[in-house]
């Protein structure tokens, strides 16, 4: 059974990831509930706690992703009447950008959304997605949506500034996305770089409009941003920077990422590398306490499932740094071919090719790295000892502090979970 969200959800989350934007769904209420709840949970706006602000029709008490609630008659006669009712109401909310997204069923009606927006004089703040990446991988839908939004905004060609960069590939679907952005932003600042925007992950429309001043785009998760990076390069000559080590997860991949970014921007990597060295030293002193005790994770088996640019560096790091043994390595749909190639080569070189695609329910790892629901299912059924939640399909834990699993601070977070889990294992 595949429980992963598809490209339609990726489209909605790309729009909702812009801080002053709002997605409007043209479709039945059943398509709206989950993404509306998800957006409000993982990227709440200032007014989301004031439920009385959303008692009007189309909101149904939820603050995000209002919906036209199409019924059987609308599929015959069209959705124009409901769009005429909903859009002026939504426009009064004061968002800088609106996007009407057809649900899979609504896309078959054939309404000309662009013509309607023009006639309603809303085409200056509202764009239409008459179709989305239905049944395609979520990262693909996210990437296509961000690219389409950048085209619609008609970004100006501004002078590029040597020390400015954009971060590409972040999405609220990723666990601790805001903490991870803060960690990467901090590493950039140590190299004298200023982050202009993170399209689809917290940046405003005005920040996105300013994104063309960037000297380069730093791609963290290529699955979510290859088309976006290609758009920036073809339209504005802004090159993309990819790290061959994958996302900056673990000390080694983070140091590789720092050197790659520094080389591409002409900056000094030393301050950022010194920061990682401090984290390494701190980890060493903590690990030394357990090296000769039962709580050391060497030989502990693990399974991991996630985006390819996450799976590759964490697999390498846990195997080489802690001596943990992968028994299941699964990639979510929409993987990056180049990263998959690196992963396959690494697994083959270490006689671990059989782990790629192995079912964690069968191999029964000690620790499972993946989404919270799958991990909890494995735990409760006795098919893994402990799960570490790294994806935003969670069991509903409430967090008040900002966390990260990228960069040096993120490496310590992962180590903390691993050592805490192993310490409690009944060896």
UniProtKB/TrEMBL annotation:
Name recorded for this polypeptide: Nitrogenase vanadium-cofactor synthesis protein vnfn
GO function terms (MF aspect): oxidoreductase activity
Record-annotated Nitrogenase/oxidoreductase component domain positions: 8-337
Pfam families attached to this UniProt entry: Oxidored_nitro (PF00148)
The organism's taxonomic lineage, starting at the top: unclassified sequences, metagenomes, ecological metagenomes
